[in-house]
Amino acid sequence: MRPASILLVAAGILAATASSSEPGSSGDIPDGIVSAKGLKGFVRASKLPDPKDPVLAAGKAVWAGTCQACHGGNKAIGAPKITSSDDWSPRIAQGLDVLFDHAINGFLGAKYAEMPAKGGNADLSDADVKAAVAFMIWASGGAEPALGYAQDTTNK
Ligand code: HEC
């Protein structure tokens, strides 16, 4: 390949990457899912959209199997509810590294509510847990960092 065509290909990849994180593009969360308090009632995976991104789609399956029981909105347990931006925005603000660490290794919140390591499912790989975190924040007001993580993982 001549240098000029390499540049054209590189520019194409950059353009594709940039456009996929713009609001309303295919990888983005549909309107009406995320709100301050989140969807009404207990939120099962079946009430949530299927992400087009394969990393987030895999995360949805993990979430349904292990995380939904608490993060669907189990008030007794005090887990932040998926789709609630009130619950998630201060947590998303900590950055993905902190969220991944707390999800993989477990975490005791300020009010002594426990997030068990890997949601109590030791069979999950670290990558499974990260994908589930990415899916959860994608559906809770953090589409941008979620898609960023998914793209970085896919391009590795
Ligand atoms: C047994 C209930 C339970 C299960 C199952 C569970 N969580 Fe949690 N999780 C919690 C609770 C409770 C908190 C809130 C702790 C606090 O801040 O008070 C939490 C918080 C979190 C946080 C936020 C951490 C932070 O720093 O604010 C993430 C991310 C998370 N969970 C991811 C997951 C993922 C991914 C799964 C599935 C693999 C999962 N959780 C399964 C109970 C659970």
TrEMBL record:
Keyword Metal-binding among UniProt keywords: yes
Signal peptide: 1-21
Keyword list, A-Z: Electron transport, Heme, Iron, Metal-binding, Signal, Transport
InterPro entries (UniProt xref): Cyt_c-like_dom, Cyt_c-like_dom_sf, Cyt_CIE
Keyword Metal-binding in record: yes
Domain Cytochrome c: start-end pairs: 54-140
Entry GO MF terms: electron transfer activity; heme binding; iron ion binding
Protein name, UniProt field: Cytochrome c-555
Organism of provenance: Pseudoprimorskyibacter insulae
